[in-house]
Amino acid sequence: SSGINAEYGESHKSSYDPEKGWCVFVFNLPPTATNETLYQLFSKFGAINSVKPVVDKNEKCKGYGFVHMVNYEDACRSIQSLEGTPMHGKALQVRFKNAKK
After folding, report:
1. I need a surface site. Which of 30, 31, 32, 81 has the fewest CB within 10 A?
2. How far apart are CA 50 and CA 48, in angstroms?
3. CA of 10: how far to CAs of 2, 4, 61, 90, in Å?
4. Which residues pair with 55 in a beta bridge?
């Protein structure tokens, strides 16, 4: 993997990756969030290709992560359903990786 800054540099490209699927960006995750946390949040919406909470050197989540959904419709549903969901006192922010506020 080419590191997080490279990913941000690609943000003007579509959030679709032919190998991984549709990249959904999740913000306001708790420090305890793991792969399992993201799977539990997103799996009810459809097939997941990969999940990646971004962690520091102590394996604590930095508050955000990425989920690659196989199908566009599933990704859209997950964003609509999970946006604003309370988790550990914060509201989740969920959007396509390249979407501008």
Report:
1. 32
2. 6
3. 11, 10, 22, 28
4. 61
| Residue 25 scores a pLDDT above 80 | yes
Count of alpha carbons within 13 angstroms of residue 92, beta-carbon side:
25
pTM for the model: 0.81
Query: Residue 93 pLDDT more than 90?
Result: yes
Distance, in Å, from the CA atom of 50 to the CA atom of 57, rounded to the nearest integer, reads 21
Chain centre to alpha carbon of residue 39 = 10
